[in-house]
Structure formats: C-alpha cells, structure tokens
Amino acid sequence: MNLERRTEFILGVKQYAIDELGIPDNDSFLEMYPGGKVHAVYHALPNRLEPAIKKDPGCQIFDDEQEAREFARSMRKEGYHAMYTTFCSYSKNEKNGEAPLTTNLLKEDRVYQSYIIFHEMFHLHCTVNKIVSNRRLDLEEALADTFAYCSQREYFADDTVRFKQIKTRRDRVRELNDFYAKYIALLREKGADTEKILARANKEQHRHKIKHRLNMAFFLRESFYAPYYGRAMDLFDHSDPRDLVANTRECYRQMLEK
Ligand SMILES: [Zn+2]
Q: Is residue 90 predicted with pLDDT exceeding 90?
C-alpha cells in the first residue's frame, strides 16, 4: 500500500473518532514528528521499581536515535536499568495534546494503526477536556486502551478478518497484562530480591512468546499501565466507545471502586 493511502487511512480513522465518537476536533497526525521517529529510553533503579532520575516519570524522549541510545548506554554504565524503544506516536500532556505522525505508524498494519489512533485520541480528549491530572496516568492509559478496543470493534465490524485479529490481540493484551502484574506485585514487595524475581520473569517469558529481556525499566513502564488494565477490560470491554468519552470521570470512579 502506498504512502498516500496509508495517510488517508490514518486520517480517516481520526475523523471517525471525531465525527462518530465524540473526540474533540484537533490537528493530530497531520504533521510528521521531527526526524520521523519518537525515541524513548525508560530507566529505573536496579533494585526498586523507581525511575533512575528523580523528578522524571522514568521515560526520557529524544528526537535523535544516537542520542537516545547513548543515554541508555550511559545509564547502564552507571548501574541503572535502561530500555530503548520507539513510539508510534504519543499525545503530549500539554497544549491541545495533538499526536504526531511517525514513520513507524505509517509502516504498521491497519489493525495496529487504528489501535494507536483511537488510543491517542482518547488521551487528547482527556487533555482538552481536563479530565484527569498527570498523577492518574494509570487510569487514563487503561481507559484509553479499552476505548481503542471498543472503537476498533465498531470500526471494523464488517471486516471479518480484522475483527477476529482485534479480538485475538485483546486476548493477548490480557494474558500479558496478567503476567506483568504478577511480577510488578512481587517487585514491589518490601525487601524483594529483585535479581531473583527478574531471573524468574525472564525464564517464564518464553511461555508468553516475549522476545526481549525484561528488566526493571521495562517493569517500571508496565507498572504505569498494569494496575488498572485488567479492571478497565473487565468493566468496559463491551461498552459503546461514546459512553467512555461522555462519562470518563464516572468510569474512573468505577475503576477505583473495590
Ligand atoms: Zn497512552
């Protein structure tokens, strides 16, 4: 598929979120991120589920790949855990929160592209409508993901093949989330032997077909998501995505209820 058709698809999904699902109109995915890729390095202390650098959420964003990789290397050299990755997009929690276009996103298949777009559109709704503070990023991430799933199901309702892929993908997310949540809880225990726990997690990862090594930086990232992912799935996976937009605060309240 050529670039033009890919861009057209991305903007079509975005417009669907605006016209049909109640997301505010915005300039997301119109501009390419500088350099085409968002590089990120997650970092953590070696023995605790905490960022290596204080006053930082445990993730540093870079426009330049070399710079990002160099930062990861220097963190490891100092004894911290680091994980280099790239983002398909991200909604900045500032201004209107518009998400940029990236070369990664353009390369993905339609199922993954639509997931990213709906997910980022939900963040944008939260930012523009001042739904939640940064401190409750865990709730926002969980609901953004569930919103993406519900929206995808609707968007691809007449596409049997993709509809099935979406369901399969959701089952995989749930399986991984349960796996991560288990180890995050162990790593958070007081006096936990983190090296031993990480070794166990890395032994078990093959069963879940995870190909990369799991370290503290990875689990720190997942710890932003894992606590409420399962809860959001249980509560809202069968929802109308419009309801999740219209009643976001009420959804958060329900997620926090025991
Ligand atoms: Zn997100």
A: no
Query: Is 72 inside any structural domain?
Result: no
Entry pTM: 0.91
193 C-alpha to ligand 1 centroid (Å): 30
Domain residue limits at 160 = 3-31+109-256
* Ligand 1 midpoint to CA 191 (Å): 31
Residue 223: enclosing H or E segment and its boundaries? helix 216-236
Residue 90: inside a domain: no
User: Per the domain annotation, does 55 fall within a domain?
Assistant: no
- Is residue 97 helix, strand or coil? coil
Give the tens place of pLDDT for each residue, 8-21.
999 999 999 999 99
Q: Specify the length of the chain in residues.
A: 258
- Give the Å distance between the CA of 36 and the centre of ligand 1: 19
Centre of ligand 1 to C-alpha 208, Å, is: 23
